[in-house]
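Support request from a user on the community tier.

User writes: "When I paste my structure tokens into the form, the page sometimes reloads and wipes my input. The last time it worked, I copied everything first. Here is what I submitted, just in case something in the input itself triggers the reload:"
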């Protein structure tokens, strides 16, 4: 456990060092001459952008939708909404070995955690494309609230009946009552929606962006970054009989796609 934590934090610090190295580069090196040299023609400065992305992070996955409003040719204000699924590091998927058609589940999981992040930030272009098919490099940051939604886990439970028969009932997972033997599998994903617990928190993120769209109007790229979610009112229970936390730090990679436009 300690070795895994050390590797994770070393990776975070290495990525942060890379981010700040990008920030430390002289932005004036990509000064006004860019407008005259890109593609050997005058450059259109787009006012707005719409883009989305699919994300894999160190403890789950996410999707986002973003709207950008250009402040200058190299800086834009970003309004973004993330929907993130967060796993606990100790989650292990299991099956009931006595039934071939049993459904997989995570033993010991109390709640599924989803995080909504309505954020505001900036996207800064550091190095523009110098030729068609080139790569533009920049960075972005964002801050805002983090709304944690903890949905209780429901399982299909085997209830002993007249031997050798058993009934299957759907119950909320209770570590004091349910064991490997009587869990048949996970219940439907909609179970527990009316019992969601809200966890208010804050979010911050920082990333390096690589835009490789062959044109000027499109936006296709990869974003590498770090996200931090903090819930000040206490830990968010995901797993039973193990440590939970109220601080989530994750490295991530995002595939982005979208479009720039004027209106």
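"...and here is what came back when it finally went through:"
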């Amino acid at each position: 456990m300690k070795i895994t934590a050390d590797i994770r934090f070393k990776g975070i610090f290495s990525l942060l060092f890379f981010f700040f190295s990008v920030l430390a580069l002289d932005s004036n090196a990509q000064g006004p001459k860019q407008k005259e040299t890109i593609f050997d023609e005058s450059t259109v400065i787009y006012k707005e952008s719409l883009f989305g992305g699919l994300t894999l992070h160190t403890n789950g996955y996410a999707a986002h939708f973003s709207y950008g409003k250009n402040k200058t040719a190299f800086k834009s204000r970003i309004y973004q909404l993330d929907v993130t699924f967060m796993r606990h590091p100790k989650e292990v998927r299991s099956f009931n070995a006595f039934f071939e058609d049993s459904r997989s589940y995570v033993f010991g999981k109390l709640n599924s955690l989803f995080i909504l992040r309505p954020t505001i930030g900036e996207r800064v272009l550091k190095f523009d494309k110098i030729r068609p098919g080139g790569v533009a490099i920049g960075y972005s940051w964002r801050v805002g609230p983090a709304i944690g939604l903890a949905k209780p886990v429901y399982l299909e439970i085997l209830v002993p009946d007249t031997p050798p028969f058993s009934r299957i009932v759907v119950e909320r997972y209770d570590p004091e009552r349910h064991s490997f033997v009587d869990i048949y599998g996970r219940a439907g994903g909609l179970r527990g929606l009316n019992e969601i617990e809200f966890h208010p928190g804050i979010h911050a993120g920082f990333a390096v962006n690589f835009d490789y769209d062959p044109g000027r109007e499109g936006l296709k790229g990869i974003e590498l970054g770090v996200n931090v979610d903090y819930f000040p009112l206490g830990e968010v229970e995901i797993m039973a009989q193990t440590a939970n936390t109220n601080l989530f730090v994750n490295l991530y990679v995002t595939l982005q796609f979208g479009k720039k436009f004027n209106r």
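Agent notes: The reload is a front-end session timeout and is unrelated to the input. The longest strand covers residues 111-127. The chain has two helices and 13 strands. Escalated to web team.
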